[in-house]
Amino acid sequence: MPFHLSPALWLLLACVLVQLFYAAYYFLPFARRPSEAADGPDTEPVSILVCARNELENLRRLLPLLLQQDYPAGFELIIIDDRSTDDTYLYVQQLTQYYPHVRLVTITSTPDGLSPKKYALTLGIKTARHERLLFTDADCIPATNQWLRYMQRGFHKPADVVLGYSAYAAESGFLNKLIRFETFLTGAQYLSFAWRGYPYMGVGRNLGYTRQVFQLTKGFASHIRSLSGDDDLLVQDAVARGARVAVVADAGAHTLSEPAQTWGQWWRQKRRHLSAGSRYRWSDRLRIGTFIGVNLLFYGTTIGLLFSRPDWVPLAAVWLVRTLAMTAVYHQLGRRLEDRLPPAWLPVLDAVYFFYYLALGMSLFLYRTLRWK
């Protein structure tokens, strides 16, 4: 009897082949790229900008670490106090008395209809004294005191925009593992795509660009009324205008953030982040959507086969090949990004994440209202 596979199994196999293409073309070459040293040309001063609203405790942890950055050319640290009602103003004002390179920008109100964070960042950037701008968030910390050195090396590639990686702290519980997996997989995508010449986003927790880029894109003008996108939509605008993009993914250049503590917090955070995707260039949406889509189709087809009359042997073979290959690739990426998850958890997290992603997409389609903190 001739060998025969059902159409559903052929579809499953096609999904796996597309996933393996992404692994072989984007992920593995990026994972195997050599690390870079922190020392290098450090002749240009830098402006570090942190936008904060009611983040006093986080600033007490972050700012001493930023002030300890080892960077010979010098830097200024601009804290943008965005309508805080805690003692942020008093704390930063005290720092300015001891550190001349610490500066405070105070926002008392936001014009109607504008994104509060983008408006605050715009005013902060206008006060910056240096051409190179480096951004992080108040709830982050730099992984090392070489963070500034590493990130500034990206401008020497040469580049106008520098993309960094921001991980989440490891804690107990399944939610923490899922958040870290989602962050890791998102980072693997935007960093490896950019490394291949297809930059499409960055994260405001670890991002650098020049003042010229900000002026070239007219700041956040194209999306100033959108709550999300102060990072990825700016990268979109910059690339559309010919800006050069560099990737700095070494562990010393990372920032580390505290993850959401509840499913609800993470749900709201991810809805806000995903809402900017509709404004991406068509080619980027196709590239990202294909990767997400084939993974969703893989799991959906598998469920359909399990509830039909399955061909158990070929189904198990396809699943085994896909699981072993993608687990190995994710493990390699985790080593490259110094953001490791237990290998045994990777197949489980992968499946849960893509179903969670589907639920998020449906939520955004049905309910589009977003709120800023």
Automatic annotation (TrEMBL):
Q: Report the transmembrane regions from the record.
A: 288-307, 345-367
Highest lineage ranks of the organism?
Bacteria, Pseudomonadati, Bacteroidota, Cytophagia, Cytophagales
Q: Which UniProt keywords apply?
A: Glycosyltransferase, Membrane, Transferase, Transmembrane, Transmembrane helix
Q: Does the keyword Transmembrane apply?
A: yes
What protein am I looking at?
Answer: Cellulose synthase/poly-beta-1,6-N-acetylglucosamine synthase-like glycosyltransferase
State the family named in the UniProt similarity comment for this chain. Belongs to the glycosyltransferase 2 family.
- The residue ranges of the Glycosyltransferase 2-like domain are 47-192
SUPFAM superfamilies from the xrefs? Nucleotide-diphospho-sugar transferases
Q: Which domain of life is it from?
A: Bacteria
